[in-house]
Amino acid sequence: MTAIREALPQAPRPQTAPPVRLALADYLTLGNALCGFMAVWQLASAQVGQLAAGVPGPLERHDVTAAVTLLLIAAVCDLFDGRVARKLGGSDMGAELDNLADVISFGFAPAFFVVVWGSTTDAGLLPIGAAAAVLLAVVVRLARFSCQAPGSRYFTGLPSPLGAVAVITVVLLDPPGYLGTAAVLLVAWLMVSRVEYPKPQGRVAYGLLAAILAGVGCLSAWAVDAPAGTALLYSGCALLLLVVLTVPFYVLLTRRAVPQDDAPAVAVPPTREG
To answer: Where do the domains of the chain lie?
Structure first.
């Protein structure tokens, strides 16, 4: 009888859940998720308030500025949680928390931006489809990133934080409905494409932080209706889109110039995308 029992397939034994012990990096990740949620709440409450007051149309400048600033703060948290985890240590839940937070802040939140913007255009339901494409692209690229082997110096596809910022940039530029929808779909495609982007390490990471701070400054000037605020906003948005579109060509040229066997390898565990 004992031999028969051992031969039969055994049901998996229940495993004890790991203790909930968050590291410092995890609190940055949770801050990322919270900022994404607050950005969506800011947009939703502003739109509901305008509809209740019978004032349809684009949202007030200060409401948009507050939501975008929250997402920029989320991007800063995402940029540094991985660095903090590598220096001070992280928890076993760090990678899972990071992916979940990124879906909120860089998937759902920018998609909601597109939905709100699309309601003021003449493009019909096309912006809704573009918003869904952004959300699904972020989910797919985060899943693909989790399956990648460590050691690469490049992201495959546009990283989701940069993709979210690019989507919001398109919304802030407020192009015609069909043109804006096409631009958002292009960003969604870049996130799931095979186009390579360098990982933010060293000077690149601090350069991205400087760009984010510059974006906050431009938004602040635009929000308080400074004399050159609108020009600064449009110039900053155009520069960001130019970087997103031209960096892959720079990577392609540098990789052709340096043989892959001679290029220094930097081992970076694929635990966090930021």
So the answer is: 23-256
What pLDDT, in 10s, does the model give residues 53-103? Answer: 776 667 777 788 888 889 888 988 888 888 888 888 777 787 888 889 999
Q: For the CA atoms of 169, 226, 209, 238, what is the dihedral angle to 10 degrees?
A: 30
Q: What is the pLDDT of residues 109-165, one digit of tens each?
A: 999 999 999 888 888 899 999 999 999 999 999 888 777 666 567 778 888 888 998
Longest dimension (CA), the chain: 88
| Dihedral angle computed from the Cα positions of residues 40, 28, 236 and 178, in that order, rounded to the nearest 10 degrees | -40
- The count of other CB atoms within 10 Å of the CB of residue 51 is 11
CA distances for 166 relative to 42, 71, 110, 236, angstroms:
20, 12, 9, 11
Q: Which CATH class is domain 23-256?
A: mainly alpha
pTM: 0.78
Cα angle 227, 232, 233 (rounded to 5 degrees) comes to: 110
Rounded-to-integer distance, Cα 85 and Cα 26, Å: 8
pLDDT in tens, 172-212: 888 888 999 999 999 999 999 888 877 766 666 677 667 76
